[in-house]
Write a structure and sequence with these properties.
The protein is of the alpha/beta class. It has one domain: DNA polymerase III subunit chi (Rossmann fold, 3-Layer(aba) Sandwich), CATH 3.40.50.10110. 29% of the residues lie in helices and 26% in strands. It has 3 helices and 7 strands. A 7-stranded mixed β-sheet has the order 3-2-4-5-1-6-7, sandwiched between helices. The mean pLDDT is 95.
Length: 149
């Protein structure tokens, strides 16, 4: 079964949290898929990953950059595993469709958005009921992560 981690963003925006998690995934030798909820946010997130830090390079791309199977981090709005990734990041309302091809699925949601929180609760119920190992991480006031469930 796929390990599922829920990340409840409260202090820091996605554009600042996601790059560090992607770097850790690449450090493990994993490929990653970042599935975004809509095309507009895909472009915004793509730009943010190019500029998040002056002293770092995070290899990633969208379909416009070439075949996704050649990208260590594939950014997409479509479900699927184009680059044989070990980890799937679901952001900006992207729903967990078929997560079974992945070792880990990270569902990130904005804790200030009631609709996003409600959707995450529904996904928690569905995924934990399907036998996946599910954990919940909430951002504290200092920006760190605390395991809550």
């Amino acid at each position: 079964m796929t390990e599922v981690l829920f990340y409840h963003l409260q202090q820091t925006p996605l554009e600042q949290v996601l790059p560090a998690l992607l770097e850790r995934s690449l450090d493990r030798g994993w490929n990653a898929v970042v599935q975004v909820g809509n095309p507009e946010r895909l472009e915004t997130l793509n730009g943010a990953l190019w500029t998040y830090r002056d002293d770092a390079f995070l290899p990633h791309g969208t379909m416009e950059d070439g075949p996704l199977e050649q990208q260590p981090v594939a950014l997409t709005v479509e479900a699927g595993n184009p680059n044989q990734a070990q980890v799937l990041f679901l952001v900006d309302g992207a729903p967990p469709a078929d997560i079974d091809p992945y070792e880990r699925c990270v569902l990130m949601f904005d804790g200030r958005d009631e609709a996003a929180v409600g959707a995450a609760r529904g996904h928690w119920k569905t995924l934990s009921g399907s036998g996946h190992e599910v954990t919940y991480w909430q951002q504290n006031d200092a920006g760190g992560w605390e395991k809550k469930a």
